[in-house]
Amino acid sequence: MSLVIIIFILSLSLTMAGTPFIRRTAMAIGFVDMPAGRKMHREPMPLMGGVAIFGGALVGFLLIFVIFRLYTLTNEVIGILLAITIMALVGLVDDRTGGLRARYKLFGQLLAVVVLIYFGVQVELAFPPLINYGLTIFWILILSNAVNFLDNMDGACAGISGVAAAFILLIAAINGQELVAALAAGILGATLGFLRYNFKPARIFMGDAGSLFLGFLLAILALELNFPQNSNFVTWMVPLLILGVPLFDLTLVIIARLRRGVNPLTTPGKDHLSHRFVRLGFTQREAVLTLYLIGGIFGLVAIFVTQASITEGYVIGSTIAVLVLMFIIWLLRQQEA
What is the tally of structural domains in the chain? Predict the structure, then answer.
């Protein structure tokens, strides 16, 4: 546990120290996000924050391997490191080019998932291998893009990712999964360090390099959680709850855009949960902090589910699902009003 704390402190410190340098570099080479009609910033914004998050999250973790050598560099760890690097590079190219074509972006994401599966990181339920492969691809791609969708307001994506990482860290530590806890500690430290410069008013954006990396790694870590003291018939809900906010937001956006008759994945708009909170009278900071709170509630429910019986788990899961659906319907009606 002490090494997990060291990784957290290293990642936090490295990201806080490195982000200003990355910001200056982005401005110097013109790696910026220009203002546009749907965007909320009014000046060119440095767009290489994902590099700082990626570096901060992983350098502290890798130093533990190099200096302390207390963890074994297994095939799974190698696969995860390769896959998240591919995903971050896909995001970085997307940021630099102003937007990759959807098929190229999807190909890069699929390549990262295939690398994961090749190295043995996948869903392991009581299904035939092909079904588990399909579930792995679906889960990771959905979560990667759901977290990517959250990067729509200052501090939203970094903070919500940090909340999710904190609960993954806690649950992994409780269950003795040191490697999962270590990687989660790296994410938590990096996101908190980046928030120093990204919370409103933001001075740098993470871009797709950051949001895709965070979503991809969080999806993997949530997948890697295991609960030897409980049944898979109930604990499969835990990753869904930990990452409930991005899934909630993605569901809301898809429904809203399908109702408008537009492509839900490629059509931009101010129809995310954060935007709707602002239209309800919240300030941007209040909207983002409310999302953090919702993420924390989901995380606390997830911890309870790890210890729940099958009956208790399904009662809780069903209740949460109904409440979320009712809230989505209410939000959509508010938009129509």
Answer: 1
